[in-house]
Request: fold
Amino acid sequence: MSRTALEGVRVLDMTHVQSGPSATQLLAWLGADVVKVEAPGGDVTRRQLRDVPDADSLYFTMLNCNKRSITLNTKTERGQEILTALIRGADVMVENFAPGAVERMGFSWERIREINPRIVYASIKGFGDGPYTAFKAYEVVAQAMGGSMATTGFQDGPPLATGAQIGDSGTGIHAVAGILAALLQREKSGRGQRVNVAMQHAVLNLCRVKLRDQQRLAHGPLAEYPNDDFTDEVPRSGNASGGGQPGWAVKCAPGGPNDYVYVIVQPQGWQPISELIGRPELAGDPEWATPEARLPKLAKMFQLIEEWTSTLPKWQVLQQLNRHNIPCGPILSPKEIIEDESLAANDMIVEVEHPERGTFTTVGNPLKLSDSPTTITTPPLLGQHNEDIYIGELGLGDEELRLLRSGGVI
Reply:
């Protein structure tokens, strides 16, 4: 039985920064042989946000585990010949260059398909066809134009970005879904195909509930929102749950920046909550007893809950709420997440050895396949696998490799 789901799948990784590398790293975690093709200077993130001098940054290492690295100057004639050979031997090619960049190298989709009719060629761009096509896209630009920022924050404040990388890594996950579907279809058709994913589109897909609420506004105010006033646009709604059951982040002792627990109040949870907060009479009070009665008073309801939670540490609040099967979760900081033993036990917080940095902490594979366990391996140094691939797999000689180096091709 195969040890990995994508064993035997060769991925030509021509990506950089985050959206592309997040996709190809996930493919590598699933068992694909991912060959990262870098310009001789390397992925720019190797040097960005460095915390250890002269070592690859965490920005790079946390997005490029389980890959191999080769260098190649695709602007040279010999570099293009080598890239052609690499494409010929690949199952998947992924790129996230600016629009038109790969075509200017001489590798249009038509040319790539001619070289290898079975290849799945995935492109990640900022936007689809239209007036935004040539815009430069970054994480928060995608959040801004995909519907996230306009609906994040509080009613009287500015639009806010989320700390989750929904524009970059969120798009990478969408790309992986498209690549896997194309590989599955290839099993039936024998042909590869083009996969296009835009960052704006991926963020929009993650914001569908706000499009739902935009349409609901036509029939009146959104009662489950904490807002006092409504226009013809979905407002920012603070920490409201955005679903059918009201929720909010309530303060806990001792009052630090992350001393909060997020609480969902389901209909069946109101009686135990009213007892926990010391107001058992509210369970039978017609003014509070039903979800319909509480809906106009959500701010007051969570104020009452917070008067109780603010006297206890968040872990005690969590324990007491869970004892009554009330949905809740503590706000966990990055520091707490790194130190969370359960996440480490689930291989979601992983320690990886690196030849330049020593040990660093990274996120593990969130996709758990029973027959395909993932082992996170160290990201490659720049050009670490040039000899393995150029000599061992493409059959180039030692002397040619030396000339390629001296000529700036690798």
Observations:
- The mean pLDDT is 96.
- Residues 169-189 form the longest helix (21 residues).
